[in-house]
Amino acid sequence: MPPPSRANNVYGPPFPQQGAMHVGHSFDRYQQHINPQHQHPHQAQIYQHAQQVSAAARSLQEKSLLSILNQNAQSTVNRIHGGGVSAAGLGGVVTRNIGVADPRQQASMAAAMGRSSTDHDNVIRDVWADNLEREMEVLRGLVEAYPYIAMDTEFPGIVARPIGKFPSKADYHYQTLRCNVDMLKIIQLGITLANENGELAKVDGQVSTWQFNFRFSLEDDMYAQDSIDLLTKSGIDFTRHSNNGIDVYKFGELLITSGLVLLDEVKWISFHSGYDFGYLVKIMSCESLPKEEANFRTKLRTFFPSLYDIKFLMKSCRNLKGGLQDIADEMGIQRIGPQHQAGSDSLLTGTIFFRMRSQYFENKIDDSVFLGQVWGLNGNGQSQQPNGVPLDPDAQIDATGAPQPPKTPVQNGSETQGTPDHTSTPMRNATPGTPGYTPSFGRMGA
Q1: Which of 27, 167, 261, 341 could tie 83 with a disulfide, CB 3.0–4.6 Å?
Q2: HSE of 77, CA atoms in CB hemisphere, 13 A
Q3: For residues 34 and 46, is the Cβ–Cβ distance under 8 A?
Q4: Does any domain span residue 63?
Q5: Is there a domain that residue 433 lies in?
Q6: In what helix (H) or strand (E) does residue 42 lie, and over which residues does it extend?
Q7: pLDDT in tens, 362-372
């Protein structure tokens, strides 16, 4: 399948020829891990596909160069401008009940880290189109020493439900994920790097978290109105996202060759992350998500061969329940940065993971049980109705995705995490044309 059209505002360096080096990589690490001629020959097709993307973009690169240089002069590391609807959880919204620590708590943690409570902008490095390549180069230089990557995303809600017959609730929930990821755009990605001991990566002596801000237009892109209202109240500058946001396909090209993905030794950490990884797989593959969940998981393992989901780890942790902020409160971990912000959430995710590993797993997680498990996929977790009430294990899913009273047992009805708490609101700019999808009018939690 050819990649989706992305002729507008795409630019970036061409990919290296097979057997050659990509600019910015050390020779040993690149030759050993990234080049498809070496340890990953099966990934050559991915690189060839990405090369086609770069070829289409070269003509725009020269036209964009002067503009980019002018933009670079304006800003390097920008202040955080607001929050987002967290994607930790299917639909990525308020089921996590994320909140900001009160000022005294933030001041206490900031004092412990040797800084004031107001300089979280020095910890979270905002990345826009004008400093994307520079920050990706920084990450390439850090990932070998800090191979644990805590991640969170923000996106514009849930706008559609699949229609038809589904063999199981697990399949219905994957199809819900698939149709929404295919139609919507990611808004933010936050990543935080750490080493085996949980020590966070530093840049110029300062602990750093990266927050990538993607191009998103309220005029042209689909969204759920409640989501946008919440994002706007949190301080998201949609004008800036429209004018200076990162092109997702350029980001995908840089991510593939960054050393952050495709490697067994790089471990990704997330919380309730079906949608998180869905967006990243779509971005890097330049294709819609596979129709079958099994094929999606194959792609997921290719790009992210080693990943942990905190929500899945919680199954073995007594007294831990609820959303990410609930866990942080229970464990006495304070948040750095504003709520509903991908960078802040990724930092909190990483901190919780290492505290859990020490406190509940004696610093040794059994990879045969937990590695590669994503809560909400492949039958992991308990289903929820749109109002957040757990679904009757014997309930059936009708053609519109609504749970019905049980009549006969659902075949292969593994319990799986569904979409979280929602409130009905109109969606905007939503003209889904994919057969088998039906709008649900963007129901999001308040």
Answers
A1: 341
A2: 15
A3: no
A4: no
A5: yes
A6: none
A7: 898 998 888 88
Which residues have C-beta within 8 Å of that of residue 406, sequence separation ≥ 6? 392, 394, 395, 396
Quick one: residue 299, left, alpha or beta (phi over 0 = left, psi -120 to 50 = alpha)? alpha
**For residue 115, is it within any domain?**
yes
Specify the pLDDT at position 324. Answer: 85
Is residue 171 assigned to a domain?
Answer: yes
Structure tokens at 116: 């004031």
339: which DSSP letter? S
In this structure, the number of other CB atoms found within 10 A of the CB of residue 79 comes to 10
d(CA 36, CA 33): 8
pTM of the model as a whole: 0.64
Residue 423: both structure tokens together: 């409130």
Would you tell me how many other CB atoms lie within 10 Å of the CB of residue 195? 14
Give the dihedral sign, CA 192/196/200/203. negative
Looking at residue 423, its pLDDT comes to 33
Q: How many domains does the chain have?
A: 1
Q: Tokens for 130, please give them.
A: 């004008």
pLDDT of 219 strictly over 70: yes
Angstrom distance (rounded) from CA 418 to CA 396: 14
How many residues in the chain? 446
What whole-number distance in Å separates Cα of residue 235 and Cα of residue 81?
A: 5
How large is the average pLDDT for residues 134-149? 98
Q: Which CA distances in Å does 339 have to 94, 106, 190, 231, 334?
A: 11, 12, 13, 10, 12
For 272, residues 6+ apart whose C-beta sits below 8 A from its C-beta are 88, 89, 90, 95, 96, 309, 310, 311, 375, 376, 417
Provide the 10 A C-beta neighbour count for residue 73.
8
Structure tokens at 74: 């304006």
DSSP state, residue 187: -
E strands, 89-159, are 124-127, 148-154
Chain center to CA of 336: 19
What whole-number distance in Å separates Cα of residue 313 and Cα of residue 329?
17
In angstroms, the CA 170 to CA 166 distance is 9
Domain span at 340: 80-439
CATH number at residue 342: 3.30.420.10
- 397 forms beta bridges with 403
